[in-house]
Amino acid sequence: MIYTGNRATLAALKAAGNLTRDLDVSISLVAAHQVPISFPVDRPPVARSFLQERLRDLAGCGAQGPLPTTVKLYLCRDRRSTLQKVLDPQSLVVIGYAGPWWRREEKILARALARDGHRVILIESRHRDSNAGYRISRDRHTFLHSLLGLHQGL
Which domains does the chain have, with CATH numbers? Predict the structure, then answer.
């Protein structure tokens, strides 16, 4: 699972927990935090410990149910290339997105990761309350096909 903001990530965690309820899986919450060029990569303007704690709090809120969840934070200059390097080959990647329809950064990232051979599921956060609802960009069958390795293009 890729961190894309608190609300979107919570919706993605909830969807992943609901759809994989009976499967023996775990979640890795991966965040590629872009550090501005005016700062050294190893010294971002926000303390690394603060960023990690925020991710742990998000993973620990329980939106995904009882699934074990680990947090991985990468400081980088380019988010997309960092994710392409750190994800295991043919990973199942869940990406949440929220906000207006014209905001397509997450969708562009999803297509790039799919081109690299990953199975990508987009989850839209539908409500202001991040735990209230979500919509899977395809349908449950697509998600389950992805889990089973039956790839369907974006």
Answer: 6-147 (3.40.50)
